[in-house]
C-alpha cells in the first residue's frame, strides 16, 4: 500500500507538492492554518525569471530555478487540465535594463556564463531596447533581452493548484488556526486547535515563514525569517507594456487585464503585513525612471506578503536525518511561484524514496545545526 502523506502548509509550494504526490499515486492531505495561498503565494507578481533575478553566480540555486522554468510549460498545462481552470501564463520575455555604461559590462559577464546553460540572451543598445518597448525612459541606455522568461497570474495559479488537488483526490483542510505535531518517530500524528487528528506515514513541511516553529520540535536550527514584500499596481490599457521590465531597483510586469504590477520593496517587520507609505514610496520614487508616464499616475492597488527567507538565501529541501519520516522544505523567499514545479517534483522523488531528479545537496535542511 502506498504511503499516506500530510503536506503541512497550503501555499503555492505545498499545493504544488500535494498535486505532484497525488500524481505519483500517494494518498495526500494538505493542512493549512489560514487560507490556501494567503501569504507569499497570493501576493506574488508571478514571475518566472531566473536569468534576470540571478545575475552573479551559476550555482545550484540557479540550476534549480532554471530546471523549474523549463518544466513550467508542461507543468502549467497539466495543472490547467487537472483543475479545469484557466490562468494567465504569458511567455512575454524580459528586459533587464541598465542606466550606466559601466553596467553594460556586467550584462556581458552575465550573458557569458548563462550561455553555458543554453540561455538565449541578447544585449541591446538603447535604440534596440526602445524598439521592443517604446515607452521606456531615455535614461535606459540598454538591456539584456531574455525571450524565455515568462510569468503567471499568481492568484489564479494558486486557485488552479487548489482545484487540481481537490479534483485529483487530495484532502484539503484550511483555517485550522493552529497545528501541533504530536508524533513523528513511529508514525505521523498532528492535531488542530479544535482537536481534530490527522495521521500519516510521512510528513512534508512547507509552512513558509512559520517553519522556524519546528526548531524546538526537532532540536535543529532553522534560520527562516519573514521578509515583508510590498507591491503596488497601476491600471493600463492591456498590452501597453509587453515585457517583464527589470532594473537594479525592482521590476514591472504587465498582466493580461492591463494591470501593471510594480515590486517589490522589502523590509523586516516580523509577521506584519500592513502596507506602509514608506514601502510604496520606494517603488514610486524609481518607477518613472523606467516608464516616465507613471509619474502622472497613482497606484490603484497596494498590498504586502511575507516571504520566507533563510540565513544564506537558499531554501531548505530534504529529508531530516534524525526524523526519517519528515521532509522539510520551506524558505523559497521570493521564488516560490517559479520553484513550485521543480520543488514539487524533487520532494515527490524524496517521498517515494527515489534519487531526486536534481541535486539537493546545497539545500540540506540541517546545514545550520
UniProtKB/TrEMBL annotation:
What pathway or pathways are given for this protein in its record? Cofactor biosynthesis; thiamine diphosphate biosynthesis
Provide a Gene Ontology MF annotation, just one.
glycine oxidase activity
This enzyme catalyses: glycine + O2 + H2O = glyoxylate + H2O2 + NH4(+)
Q: Which residues form the FAD dependent oxidoreductase domain?
A: 5-350
Q: Kindly indicate whether the keyword Nucleus belongs to this entry.
A: no
Instruction: State the UniProt keywords alphabetically.
Output: Oxidoreductase, Thiamine biosynthesis
Q: Which InterPro entries match?
A: FAD-dep_OxRdtase (IPR006076), FAD/NAD-bd_sf (IPR036188), Gly_oxidase_ThiO (IPR012727)
Give EC number(s), comma-separated: 1.4.3.19
Q: Which PANTHER family does the UniProt entry name for this protein?
A: GLYCINE OXIDASE, SARCOSINE DEHYDROGENASE-RELATED
Protein known as: glycine oxidase
The organism is Alkalicoccobacillus plakortidis
- Give the organism's phylogenetic lineage: Bacteria, Bacillati, Bacillota, Bacilli, Bacillales
